[in-house]
Design goal:
11 strands; 43% helix; 4 domains; 440 residues; two-stranded antiparallel ribbon; mainly alpha; 3-stranded antiparallel sheet
Length: 440
Protein backbone atom coordinates (compact mmCIF):
# COMPACT_ATOMS: atom_id res chain seq x y z
CA UNK A 1 0.00 0.00 0.00
CA UNK A 2 1.33 3.43 -0.91
CA UNK A 3 1.83 5.95 1.92
CA UNK A 4 1.03 8.88 -0.35
CA UNK A 5 -2.16 10.73 0.46
CA UNK A 6 -4.11 11.99 -2.54
CA UNK A 7 -5.76 15.37 -2.27
CA UNK A 8 -9.33 15.20 -3.56
CA UNK A 9 -10.21 17.06 -6.71
CA UNK A 10 -11.33 20.61 -5.92
CA UNK A 11 -9.82 20.70 -2.43
CA UNK A 12 -9.01 24.24 -1.18
CA UNK A 13 -5.57 25.54 -2.16
CA UNK A 14 -4.72 22.38 -4.06
CA UNK A 15 -5.11 20.74 -7.42
CA UNK A 16 -6.69 17.36 -8.09
CA UNK A 17 -4.30 14.50 -8.58
CA UNK A 18 -1.53 15.80 -6.30
CA UNK A 19 -0.05 13.72 -3.51
CA UNK A 20 1.33 14.68 -0.10
CA UNK A 21 4.30 12.64 1.10
CA UNK A 22 2.98 12.30 4.63
CA UNK A 23 3.15 8.64 5.68
CA UNK A 24 0.59 8.95 8.48
CA UNK A 25 -2.05 10.98 6.60
CA UNK A 26 -5.11 8.88 5.90
CA UNK A 27 -3.67 5.77 7.60
CA UNK A 28 -4.27 6.54 11.28
CA UNK A 29 -6.87 4.41 12.98
CA UNK A 30 -6.52 1.47 10.59
CA UNK A 31 -6.26 -1.98 12.23
CA UNK A 32 -2.99 -3.89 12.22
CA UNK A 33 -3.09 -6.40 9.37
CA UNK A 34 -0.84 -9.38 8.82
CA UNK A 35 -1.20 -10.33 5.12
CA UNK A 36 0.84 -13.49 5.65
CA UNK A 37 -1.38 -15.22 8.20
CA UNK A 38 -4.78 -13.68 7.39
CA UNK A 39 -7.22 -14.70 4.66
CA UNK A 40 -8.72 -12.30 2.14
CA UNK A 41 -12.03 -12.23 4.02
CA UNK A 42 -10.27 -11.42 7.30
CA UNK A 43 -8.22 -8.67 5.69
CA UNK A 44 -11.32 -6.94 4.32
CA UNK A 45 -13.75 -7.66 7.16
CA UNK A 46 -13.57 -4.11 8.55
CA UNK A 47 -14.01 -2.54 5.12
CA UNK A 48 -17.05 -4.66 4.31
CA UNK A 49 -18.59 -4.02 7.73
CA UNK A 50 -18.27 -0.27 7.32
CA UNK A 51 -19.64 -0.46 3.77
CA UNK A 52 -23.02 -1.79 4.93
CA UNK A 53 -25.63 0.98 4.87
CA UNK A 54 -28.31 1.14 7.51
CA UNK A 55 -31.88 0.88 6.19
CA UNK A 56 -33.87 4.10 6.04
CA UNK A 57 -36.19 4.72 8.97
CA UNK A 58 -39.91 5.12 8.28
CA UNK A 59 -42.42 7.17 10.20
CA UNK A 60 -45.05 5.22 12.08
CA UNK A 61 -48.63 5.09 10.85
CA UNK A 62 -49.76 7.53 13.56
CA UNK A 63 -46.99 10.01 12.73
CA UNK A 64 -47.78 9.79 9.01
CA UNK A 65 -51.51 10.35 9.65
CA UNK A 66 -50.75 13.38 11.83
CA UNK A 67 -48.49 14.92 9.18
CA UNK A 68 -51.05 14.32 6.42
CA UNK A 69 -53.74 15.96 8.57
CA UNK A 70 -51.62 19.10 8.83
CA UNK A 71 -50.90 19.21 5.07
CA UNK A 72 -53.04 20.92 2.47
CA UNK A 73 -51.06 19.83 -0.61
CA UNK A 74 -48.79 16.90 -1.45
CA UNK A 75 -46.21 16.89 -4.21
CA UNK A 76 -43.24 14.78 -5.24
CA UNK A 77 -39.71 16.08 -5.65
CA UNK A 78 -36.52 14.17 -6.53
CA UNK A 79 -35.78 13.77 -2.81
CA UNK A 80 -39.25 12.34 -2.09
CA UNK A 81 -42.64 13.56 -0.87
CA UNK A 82 -43.18 17.15 0.29
CA UNK A 83 -46.16 18.10 2.49
CA UNK A 84 -47.24 21.77 2.65
CA UNK A 85 -49.96 23.52 4.63
CA UNK A 86 -52.49 26.06 3.32
CA UNK A 87 -49.94 28.89 3.65
CA UNK A 88 -47.31 27.13 1.55
CA UNK A 89 -45.13 26.29 4.54
CA UNK A 90 -43.40 22.92 4.47
CA UNK A 91 -44.86 20.53 7.02
CA UNK A 92 -42.56 17.64 6.16
CA UNK A 93 -40.02 16.91 3.44
CA UNK A 94 -38.42 13.57 2.71
CA UNK A 95 -34.68 13.89 2.22
CA UNK A 96 -31.98 11.48 1.16
CA UNK A 97 -31.20 8.94 3.92
CA UNK A 98 -33.83 10.63 6.10
CA UNK A 99 -37.05 9.17 7.52
CA UNK A 100 -39.76 8.27 5.02
CA UNK A 101 -43.52 8.37 5.39
CA UNK A 102 -45.40 5.12 5.87
CA UNK A 103 -46.33 3.86 2.39
CA UNK A 104 -49.44 1.97 3.53
CA UNK A 105 -50.99 5.13 4.97
CA UNK A 106 -49.87 7.18 1.98
CA UNK A 107 -51.66 4.92 -0.48
CA UNK A 108 -54.98 5.61 1.24
CA UNK A 109 -54.76 9.41 0.87
CA UNK A 110 -56.41 11.00 -2.20
CA UNK A 111 -53.84 13.80 -2.40
CA UNK A 112 -51.00 11.29 -2.43
CA UNK A 113 -52.68 9.27 -5.17
CA UNK A 114 -53.08 12.45 -7.20
CA UNK A 115 -49.40 13.33 -6.80
CA UNK A 116 -48.45 9.81 -7.84
CA UNK A 117 -50.62 10.06 -10.96
CA UNK A 118 -49.08 13.41 -11.87
CA UNK A 119 -45.62 11.82 -11.89
CA UNK A 120 -46.31 8.41 -13.40
CA UNK A 121 -48.71 9.73 -16.07
CA UNK A 122 -47.23 13.19 -16.59
CA UNK A 123 -44.73 14.37 -19.17
CA UNK A 124 -42.21 15.81 -16.67
CA UNK A 125 -40.87 18.20 -19.29
CA UNK A 126 -37.71 20.05 -18.36
CA UNK A 127 -36.86 17.66 -15.53
CA UNK A 128 -33.36 16.12 -15.79
CA UNK A 129 -33.24 12.37 -16.32
CA UNK A 130 -31.63 11.68 -12.93
CA UNK A 131 -34.36 13.67 -11.14
CA UNK A 132 -37.07 11.92 -13.17
CA UNK A 133 -35.72 8.55 -12.08
CA UNK A 134 -35.80 9.57 -8.40
CA UNK A 135 -39.30 11.05 -8.70
CA UNK A 136 -40.63 7.89 -10.35
CA UNK A 137 -38.98 5.78 -7.66
CA UNK A 138 -40.67 7.85 -4.93
CA UNK A 139 -44.04 7.72 -6.70
CA UNK A 140 -43.73 3.99 -7.26
CA UNK A 141 -43.29 3.38 -3.54
CA UNK A 142 -46.69 4.93 -2.76
CA UNK A 143 -48.53 3.75 -5.90
CA UNK A 144 -51.55 1.48 -5.62
CA UNK A 145 -51.59 -1.94 -7.35
CA UNK A 146 -53.85 -0.55 -10.09
CA UNK A 147 -51.55 2.42 -10.69
CA UNK A 148 -48.52 0.15 -10.78
CA UNK A 149 -50.07 -2.10 -13.40
CA UNK A 150 -51.16 0.87 -15.47
CA UNK A 151 -47.63 2.29 -15.24
CA UNK A 152 -46.09 -0.95 -16.48
CA UNK A 153 -48.59 -1.16 -19.34
CA UNK A 154 -48.58 2.39 -20.67
CA UNK A 155 -46.52 4.90 -18.69
CA UNK A 156 -43.73 6.72 -20.55
CA UNK A 157 -41.58 6.33 -17.41
CA UNK A 158 -41.85 2.57 -16.94
CA UNK A 159 -38.18 2.33 -17.86
CA UNK A 160 -37.43 3.73 -14.37
CA UNK A 161 -39.60 1.16 -12.58
CA UNK A 162 -37.60 -1.53 -10.72
CA UNK A 163 -36.97 -4.48 -13.03
CA UNK A 164 -37.99 -6.94 -10.32
CA UNK A 165 -41.45 -5.36 -10.08
CA UNK A 166 -41.96 -5.49 -13.86
CA UNK A 167 -40.80 -9.11 -14.04
CA UNK A 168 -43.13 -10.18 -11.22
CA UNK A 169 -46.07 -8.34 -12.77
CA UNK A 170 -45.60 -9.82 -16.26
CA UNK A 171 -45.05 -13.31 -14.86
CA UNK A 172 -48.47 -13.24 -13.13
CA UNK A 173 -50.42 -12.02 -16.16
CA UNK A 174 -53.12 -14.31 -17.51
CA UNK A 175 -52.73 -12.81 -21.00
CA UNK A 176 -49.26 -14.12 -21.88
CA UNK A 177 -49.25 -12.50 -25.32
CA UNK A 178 -50.00 -9.08 -23.86
CA UNK A 179 -47.25 -9.53 -21.27
CA UNK A 180 -44.73 -10.42 -23.99
CA UNK A 181 -45.79 -7.37 -26.00
CA UNK A 182 -45.17 -5.12 -22.98
CA UNK A 183 -41.63 -6.49 -22.79
CA UNK A 184 -41.13 -5.89 -26.52
CA UNK A 185 -42.38 -2.31 -26.24
CA UNK A 186 -40.08 -1.71 -23.28
CA UNK A 187 -37.17 -3.08 -25.33
CA UNK A 188 -37.64 -0.40 -27.99
CA UNK A 189 -38.00 2.30 -25.31
CA UNK A 190 -34.98 1.19 -23.27
CA UNK A 191 -33.14 -2.00 -24.23
CA UNK A 192 -31.15 -2.01 -20.99
CA UNK A 193 -34.33 -1.89 -18.90
CA UNK A 194 -35.81 -4.80 -20.86
CA UNK A 195 -32.60 -6.80 -20.41
CA UNK A 196 -32.81 -6.21 -16.65
CA UNK A 197 -36.37 -7.56 -16.64
CA UNK A 198 -35.21 -10.68 -18.49
CA UNK A 199 -32.36 -11.24 -16.04
CA UNK A 200 -34.85 -10.88 -13.16
CA UNK A 201 -36.82 -13.91 -14.30
CA UNK A 202 -39.27 -12.98 -17.05
CA UNK A 203 -39.78 -14.87 -19.30
CA UNK A 204 -39.46 -17.75 -16.82
CA UNK A 205 -39.34 -21.53 -17.32
CA UNK A 206 -43.06 -21.69 -18.14
CA UNK A 207 -43.02 -18.71 -20.53
CA UNK A 208 -41.32 -20.28 -23.56
CA UNK A 209 -43.88 -18.77 -25.95
CA UNK A 210 -43.23 -15.27 -24.62
CA UNK A 211 -39.47 -15.80 -24.86
CA UNK A 212 -39.57 -16.83 -28.51
CA UNK A 213 -42.00 -14.05 -29.34
CA UNK A 214 -39.49 -11.56 -27.94
CA UNK A 215 -36.56 -13.23 -29.74
CA UNK A 216 -38.23 -13.52 -33.15
CA UNK A 217 -39.61 -9.98 -33.14
CA UNK A 218 -36.58 -8.08 -31.85
CA UNK A 219 -33.91 -9.98 -33.80
CA UNK A 220 -34.87 -8.01 -36.94
CA UNK A 221 -34.19 -4.31 -37.44
CA UNK A 222 -37.52 -2.48 -37.71
CA UNK A 223 -38.64 1.01 -38.63
CA UNK A 224 -39.32 3.14 -35.56
CA UNK A 225 -41.80 5.36 -37.44
CA UNK A 226 -43.73 5.55 -40.70
CA UNK A 227 -41.60 6.33 -43.76
CA UNK A 228 -43.49 8.65 -46.14
CA UNK A 229 -42.59 9.37 -49.76
CA UNK A 230 -42.31 13.16 -49.96
CA UNK A 231 -43.23 13.21 -53.65
CA UNK A 232 -46.44 11.17 -53.50
CA UNK A 233 -47.29 11.37 -49.80
CA UNK A 234 -47.77 7.62 -49.62
CA UNK A 235 -46.48 5.56 -46.73
CA UNK A 236 -43.58 3.44 -47.99
CA UNK A 237 -42.92 1.60 -44.74
CA UNK A 238 -45.13 1.38 -41.68
CA UNK A 239 -43.82 1.58 -38.14
CA UNK A 240 -42.66 -1.87 -37.10
CA UNK A 241 -42.01 -3.15 -40.63
CA UNK A 242 -38.78 -5.08 -41.11
CA UNK A 243 -35.83 -3.23 -42.62
CA UNK A 244 -34.65 -5.03 -45.76
CA UNK A 245 -31.15 -5.11 -47.21
CA UNK A 246 -29.27 -6.90 -49.98
CA UNK A 247 -27.81 -10.26 -48.98
CA UNK A 248 -27.44 -13.87 -50.10
CA UNK A 249 -30.42 -16.23 -50.28
CA UNK A 250 -30.80 -19.87 -51.30
CA UNK A 251 -31.72 -20.34 -54.97
CA UNK A 252 -34.89 -22.32 -55.62
CA UNK A 253 -35.36 -24.77 -58.50
CA UNK A 254 -37.93 -23.14 -60.85
CA UNK A 255 -41.38 -24.66 -60.53
CA UNK A 256 -40.54 -26.59 -57.37
CA UNK A 257 -40.11 -26.05 -53.64
CA UNK A 258 -36.60 -27.51 -53.60
CA UNK A 259 -33.29 -25.71 -53.28
CA UNK A 260 -30.77 -25.85 -56.11
CA UNK A 261 -27.54 -27.67 -55.13
CA UNK A 262 -24.02 -27.41 -56.53
CA UNK A 263 -21.54 -30.23 -57.27
CA UNK A 264 -20.64 -30.61 -53.58
CA UNK A 265 -24.28 -30.85 -52.54
CA UNK A 266 -24.39 -27.38 -51.01
CA UNK A 267 -27.17 -24.90 -51.62
CA UNK A 268 -26.50 -22.32 -54.29
CA UNK A 269 -26.47 -18.73 -53.01
CA UNK A 270 -27.74 -15.81 -55.09
CA UNK A 271 -28.17 -12.09 -54.27
CA UNK A 272 -31.52 -11.20 -52.77
CA UNK A 273 -33.30 -9.03 -50.22
CA UNK A 274 -33.14 -10.25 -46.62
CA UNK A 275 -34.18 -8.88 -43.24
CA UNK A 276 -31.51 -6.76 -41.60
CA UNK A 277 -30.40 -8.28 -38.26
CA UNK A 278 -30.77 -6.05 -35.20
CA UNK A 279 -27.76 -5.38 -32.99
CA UNK A 280 -29.76 -3.93 -30.07
CA UNK A 281 -30.71 -6.51 -27.48
CA UNK A 282 -28.29 -9.17 -28.73
CA UNK A 283 -27.15 -10.13 -25.23
CA UNK A 284 -30.72 -10.46 -23.93
CA UNK A 285 -31.72 -12.69 -26.87
CA UNK A 286 -28.60 -14.80 -26.40
CA UNK A 287 -29.50 -15.30 -22.73
CA UNK A 288 -33.05 -16.38 -23.61
CA UNK A 289 -31.82 -18.77 -26.30
CA UNK A 290 -29.52 -20.48 -23.83
CA UNK A 291 -32.43 -20.78 -21.38
CA UNK A 292 -35.01 -22.12 -23.86
CA UNK A 293 -32.79 -23.73 -26.52
CA UNK A 294 -29.82 -24.99 -24.50
CA UNK A 295 -26.77 -26.45 -26.21
CA UNK A 296 -23.87 -28.39 -24.74
CA UNK A 297 -22.42 -26.79 -21.65
CA UNK A 298 -25.29 -24.45 -20.76
CA UNK A 299 -25.75 -24.74 -16.97
CA UNK A 300 -29.12 -25.10 -15.30
CA UNK A 301 -30.54 -22.42 -13.02
CA UNK A 302 -29.30 -24.20 -9.91
CA UNK A 303 -25.84 -24.71 -11.40
CA UNK A 304 -25.70 -21.05 -12.38
CA UNK A 305 -26.53 -20.04 -8.79
CA UNK A 306 -23.74 -22.29 -7.51
CA UNK A 307 -21.25 -20.69 -9.91
CA UNK A 308 -22.36 -17.20 -8.86
CA UNK A 309 -21.90 -18.06 -5.17
CA UNK A 310 -18.39 -19.37 -5.82
CA UNK A 311 -17.35 -16.27 -7.77
CA UNK A 312 -18.80 -14.00 -5.08
CA UNK A 313 -16.25 -15.45 -2.64
CA UNK A 314 -13.49 -13.96 -4.83
CA UNK A 315 -14.87 -10.40 -4.88
CA UNK A 316 -12.03 -9.29 -2.61
CA UNK A 317 -9.40 -10.73 -5.00
CA UNK A 318 -10.20 -9.31 -8.47
CA UNK A 319 -7.05 -10.72 -10.09
CA UNK A 320 -7.93 -14.26 -8.99
CA UNK A 321 -11.55 -13.76 -9.98
CA UNK A 322 -10.54 -12.59 -13.45
CA UNK A 323 -8.13 -15.51 -13.84
CA UNK A 324 -10.82 -18.04 -12.84
CA UNK A 325 -13.25 -16.51 -15.33
CA UNK A 326 -10.59 -16.48 -18.07
CA UNK A 327 -9.91 -20.18 -17.51
CA UNK A 328 -13.63 -20.88 -17.70
CA UNK A 329 -13.72 -19.12 -21.08
CA UNK A 330 -10.56 -20.55 -22.67
CA UNK A 331 -9.40 -23.48 -20.54
CA UNK A 332 -6.42 -24.06 -18.27
CA UNK A 333 -3.91 -22.46 -20.60
CA UNK A 334 -1.30 -19.92 -19.55
CA UNK A 335 -2.86 -16.63 -18.49
CA UNK A 336 -0.77 -13.86 -20.11
CA UNK A 337 -1.48 -11.07 -17.62
CA UNK A 338 -2.39 -11.42 -13.90
CA UNK A 339 -1.28 -14.39 -11.81
CA UNK A 340 -2.19 -15.56 -8.31
CA UNK A 341 -2.71 -18.58 -6.15
CA UNK A 342 -6.02 -19.52 -7.76
CA UNK A 343 -6.03 -23.11 -6.51
CA UNK A 344 -5.48 -21.91 -2.93
CA UNK A 345 -8.43 -19.53 -3.29
CA UNK A 346 -10.61 -22.36 -4.61
CA UNK A 347 -9.68 -24.51 -1.61
CA UNK A 348 -10.74 -21.69 0.71
CA UNK A 349 -14.09 -21.44 -1.07
CA UNK A 350 -14.62 -25.19 -0.65
CA UNK A 351 -13.97 -24.79 3.06
CA UNK A 352 -16.82 -22.24 3.19
CA UNK A 353 -19.30 -24.71 1.71
CA UNK A 354 -19.26 -23.47 -1.90
CA UNK A 355 -17.58 -26.57 -3.33
CA UNK A 356 -20.34 -27.34 -5.85
CA UNK A 357 -19.76 -24.07 -7.68
CA UNK A 358 -15.98 -24.57 -7.64
CA UNK A 359 -16.39 -28.05 -9.14
CA UNK A 360 -18.44 -26.60 -12.00
CA UNK A 361 -15.80 -23.92 -12.60
CA UNK A 362 -13.03 -26.54 -12.57
CA UNK A 363 -15.00 -28.73 -14.98
CA UNK A 364 -15.43 -25.87 -17.44
CA UNK A 365 -11.79 -24.82 -17.09
CA UNK A 366 -10.58 -28.37 -17.65
CA UNK A 367 -12.57 -28.77 -20.86
CA UNK A 368 -10.59 -28.42 -24.05
CA UNK A 369 -10.78 -24.76 -25.04
CA UNK A 370 -12.91 -23.88 -22.02
CA UNK A 371 -16.70 -23.77 -21.85
CA UNK A 372 -18.00 -20.60 -23.46
CA UNK A 373 -21.69 -21.22 -22.79
CA UNK A 374 -21.11 -21.59 -19.06
CA UNK A 375 -18.94 -18.47 -19.05
CA UNK A 376 -21.62 -16.47 -20.87
CA UNK A 377 -24.31 -17.50 -18.39
CA UNK A 378 -22.00 -16.50 -15.55
CA UNK A 379 -21.27 -13.15 -17.21
CA UNK A 380 -24.97 -12.42 -17.72
CA UNK A 381 -25.44 -12.84 -13.94
CA UNK A 382 -22.62 -10.30 -13.35
CA UNK A 383 -20.38 -12.59 -11.32
CA UNK A 384 -17.35 -10.32 -11.82
CA UNK A 385 -16.57 -7.35 -9.63
CA UNK A 386 -15.90 -4.08 -11.55
CA UNK A 387 -12.15 -4.39 -11.03
CA UNK A 388 -12.14 -8.05 -12.08
CA UNK A 389 -14.15 -7.17 -15.20
CA UNK A 390 -11.57 -4.55 -16.14
CA UNK A 391 -8.72 -7.02 -15.61
CA UNK A 392 -10.48 -9.69 -17.68
CA UNK A 393 -11.06 -7.35 -20.61
CA UNK A 394 -7.37 -6.42 -20.59
CA UNK A 395 -6.39 -10.08 -20.89
CA UNK A 396 -5.79 -11.44 -24.38
CA UNK A 397 -8.19 -14.10 -25.73
CA UNK A 398 -6.92 -17.61 -25.24
CA UNK A 399 -7.49 -18.70 -28.84
CA UNK A 400 -8.28 -17.40 -32.32
CA UNK A 401 -11.58 -19.22 -32.78
CA UNK A 402 -14.54 -17.40 -34.30
CA UNK A 403 -18.14 -17.29 -33.13
CA UNK A 404 -20.73 -19.82 -34.33
CA UNK A 405 -22.61 -17.38 -36.55
CA UNK A 406 -23.02 -16.61 -40.23
CA UNK A 407 -23.38 -12.88 -39.70
CA UNK A 408 -20.21 -11.11 -40.67
CA UNK A 409 -19.05 -7.67 -39.59
CA UNK A 410 -17.27 -4.96 -41.50
CA UNK A 411 -13.76 -4.65 -40.07
CA UNK A 412 -10.82 -2.66 -41.38
CA UNK A 413 -7.70 -4.68 -42.10
CA UNK A 414 -4.88 -3.22 -40.00
CA UNK A 415 -2.29 -4.15 -42.63
CA UNK A 416 -3.95 -3.13 -45.91
CA UNK A 417 -6.44 -0.60 -44.54
CA UNK A 418 -9.25 -2.18 -46.60
CA UNK A 419 -12.66 -2.93 -45.10
CA UNK A 420 -13.37 -6.67 -44.99
CA UNK A 421 -16.27 -8.93 -44.00
CA UNK A 422 -15.19 -11.06 -41.04
CA UNK A 423 -16.83 -13.38 -38.60
CA UNK A 424 -16.62 -12.05 -35.03
CA UNK A 425 -14.21 -13.68 -32.62
CA UNK A 426 -15.51 -16.19 -30.10
CA UNK A 427 -17.14 -14.61 -27.00
CA UNK A 428 -17.11 -11.15 -28.63
CA UNK A 429 -20.75 -10.68 -27.66
CA UNK A 430 -19.99 -11.55 -24.02
CA UNK A 431 -17.09 -9.10 -23.92
CA UNK A 432 -19.33 -6.37 -25.37
CA UNK A 433 -21.91 -7.13 -22.69
CA UNK A 434 -19.28 -6.76 -19.95
CA UNK A 435 -18.10 -3.49 -21.51
CA UNK A 436 -21.65 -2.10 -21.46
CA UNK A 437 -22.75 -3.34 -18.04
CA UNK A 438 -19.62 -2.27 -16.17
CA UNK A 439 -19.20 0.92 -18.28
CA UNK A 440 -15.56 0.13 -19.02
Amino acid sequence: MSNQYRKPKGAPNSAGGQYDNKPDMGLTGLPDLDPVSMTISELTATMRENAVREPRVCKTEQETLRLLAQAATVRIEPSGFVLEDEHGEVVFREINDGPMLDKTVMRGDKRVRGAVRDVLRGRLEGVPAADRRRMVKAAWRAATPYERRRTIDASPWRRYVPATSIANSLRRRKDADRAAQVLIDLHYEDAAAAANVIRNGYPGPGDARAAWKFINYTKIERYDKDVVDKATGKIMHHKGDAVREMGLVNKMVPGTRRYELDEQGRRVKVPGMVNKPAAKGMAARSYLRMMFQPTNGVPSREQTKQIVRAFRELDDAPDLQAQAFWEMCYGNGSVPNPHGDLQFAKDLIRMHGKGAGVDLIDGASGARGGQGNMARMAAYHKVLSPEAARIFLEMEPGDARVAHTRRTRRVRNKVTGVMEDRLPARLTEMRSFIHAVYEI
